[in-house]
Automatic annotation (TrEMBL):
Coiled coil: none
UniProt cross-references to InterPro entries, sorted A to Z: CxC2_KDZ-assoc
PANTHER family assigned to the protein according to its UniProt record, in alphabetical order: CXC1-LIKE CYSTEINE CLUSTER ASSOCIATED WITH KDZ TRANSPOSASES DOMAIN-CONTAINING PROTEIN (PTHR33096:SF1), CXC2 DOMAIN-CONTAINING PROTEIN (PTHR33096)
Domain CxC2-like cysteine cluster KDZ transposase-associated residues, every copy: 169-244
The organism of origin for this protein: Perca fluviatilis
Official protein name in the record: CxC2-like cysteine cluster KDZ transposase-associated domain-containing protein
SUPFAM superfamilies the record matches: B-box zinc-binding domain
Region called Disordered, residue ranges: 33-64
Length: 341
């Protein structure tokens, strides 16, 4: 019988790992791993005359890769949030009840609050009505158990310059900046169209003639930005307002019909004209002037539509009205046909 081979010994080997980044210096770390040292006598495993003793591992365990700075910062951030999140939840529960019962205006007893004005201020009924004149805020009232919506009665009054004109009142459905639907009594004047009067109040009408629904302009600006940057559809925006403000299906359908019409297209164009100031200062650049094209003499650079496979059928019809932007974006089709001929 041959002698058994000696047990394999382990030696510690360091493996150098280099991580190269696009920007910055390369990061170097080391991995420690135990590798078996070959014995002096090699035996074939199929030889029955030899026996192999089991290998004894080294006491040194392989160490893991060194922790990165990002993981350390992430752990610190998580620990910081874990330290305060329970306290933040307790504070939110405490804020569900009045912090004080003293009105911030007259220092009398107060039972009302307005979250859109302040999360800590409370009002009495008289001061609430006085400070919320021509406002579309929706206050709450404390009923000794919780805050509930308070029907303040929303009114929008015209300035004193219209007092000598034929002023009349009209109830309208208004979607305010928070996305909530409410009924507002609006003062109208016969000296100007109702759409212009609504614009004075910061509202955009759903229709140009005798509007019954209006939108808060900040809400429409948010929708325009979301549709451009996040490709949010009108239906998706309406459903978002539905889940946020607990709207009924009928209210959401009415909101969708109002937004999907011509109103939102007109608002986009109004928003462009307001930002570019072209109607006020025609010499200003509206953002569509090509910097490479000569402004006096020379050749104009005209780009061609790259979608040459798009089928243009005469049965598709033409636009009912002229484009809002005229020839800012596209050359007139008649000029193109004359050029090609």
């Amino acid at each position: 019988m041959g002698k058994a081979s000696k047990s394999a010994r382990f030696r510690s080997v360091k493996i150098k790992v280099v991580r190269r980044c696009i920007a910055g210096r390369a990061k170097v770390s080391y991995l420690s791993q135990g590798l078996p040292q070959p014995s002096a006598k090699q035996t074939h495993p199929s030889d029955p005359s030899t026996s192999v003793t089991p290998q004894v591992e080294s006491d040194v365990a392989p160490s893991s890769c060194s922790e990165t700075a990002y993981s350390k910062a992430k752990k610190r951030e998580i620990h910081a949030w874990d330290a305060v999140k329970d306290d933040m939840l307790k504070v939110s529960f405490k804020c569900s009840a009045p912090i004080t019962t003293q009105c911030v205006v007259c220092l009398e007893d107060a039972d009302y609050r307005c979250i859109e004005c302040s999360t800590t201020a409370v009002f009495c009924e008289a001061c609430l009505k006085r400070t919320h004149r021509n406002s579309l805020h929706l206050p709450d009232k404390w009923n000794n158990a919780y805050y509930e919506p308070f029907s303040l009665g929303l009114f929008l009054y015209l300035p004193e310059g219209h007092s000598t004109h034929a002023v009349y009142m009209k109830d309208m459905k208004v979607i305010i900046s928070t996305g909530q639907l409410c009924t507002v009594t609006v003062n109208m004047c016969a000296c100007e169209p109702e759409a212009c009067t609504l614009l004075r109040y910061g509202l955009w009408p759903a229709t140009a003639d005798k509007p019954q629904t209006a939108f808060s302009i900040p809400l429409l600006e948010l929708f325009v930005c979301l549709s451009l940057e996040c490709q949010v559809s009108v239906e998706g925006f309406c459903n978002t307002l539905r889940w946020k403000n607990n709207l009924t299906l009928a209210e959401v359908n009415a909101l969708y019909r109002a937004l999907v019409g011509e109103s939102i297209s007109q608002f986009r164009h109004y928003h462009f004209r307001q930002r570019s100031l072209v109607d006020v200062c025609p010499h200003l650049d509206d953002g569509t002037t090509c910097p490479a094209c000569p402004k006096a003499d020379g050749d104009m650079i005209v780009t061609l539509n790259a979608n040459f496979g798009l089928v243009r059928k005469q049965s598709s019809g033409t636009s009912v009205v002229e484009p809002f932007h005229g020839t800012r974006m596209f050359v007139d089709e008649k000029d193109v046909e004359e050029y090609l001929l």
